[in-house]
Amino acid sequence: MRNPSWESCCKQGSAQLQLLPDPPEYLKNLLERTDTQGRHFKDNLRQYNAAFAFTSLGCDIVSPEDRANNNNNNNSSSSSNNNNNNRGGLNAFQIHGALCHHQGPLTPVEGNEPSYVQLYIFDPSYAAERRQARNSNLDPEIVREL
To answer: At the N or C end, where does the chain have fewer CB atoms within 10 A?
Structure first.
């Protein structure tokens, strides 16, 4: 943003927020790394987060193309359109309609593989194996370590 404005939040830029504590060392290392594994982790951060979620998320996600079209139509004179996230941060996503979280039972239905919160009551090695099976594009080493 060329001229950021804090008028609608943060007490016009004067809000003082406490710093968050550092994440665990392994996670901090992944976030700071610039090698192939670090880039892979950051590029797939939302999927890693989902792989370790307690609940599933249900919503209609607005596609990047629709977001771009909506922003171009609504803000044709604005230079703050960052749909492609040119600032180098994490990509946000936009939802349409309701957002809901579904938490299933603590034990899987007979014949079904465990998922979400159910994986937290199993041996960590087995849980990592199941997460990896459901998210085959994630790095197995990262899944095991997390």
So the answer is: N
- Residue whose structure tokens are 């989902």: 50
Its domain, for residue 121, covers 23-68+91-145
Residue 12 in domain = no
In a domain, 33, yes or no: yes
For residue 93, the 8-state DSSP code is -
| 35-93 pLDDT, tens digit each | 999 999 999 998 998 888 877 777 788 887 887 777 666 554 333 333 444 445 556 77
Give pTM, 2 decimals: 0.61
CA-nearest of 57, 54, 59 to 115 is: 54
The pLDDT of residue 27 is 95
Angle ∠(80,70,13) on CA atoms, nearest 5: 30
Cα 39 to Cα 32: distance, rounded to the nearest angstrom: 9
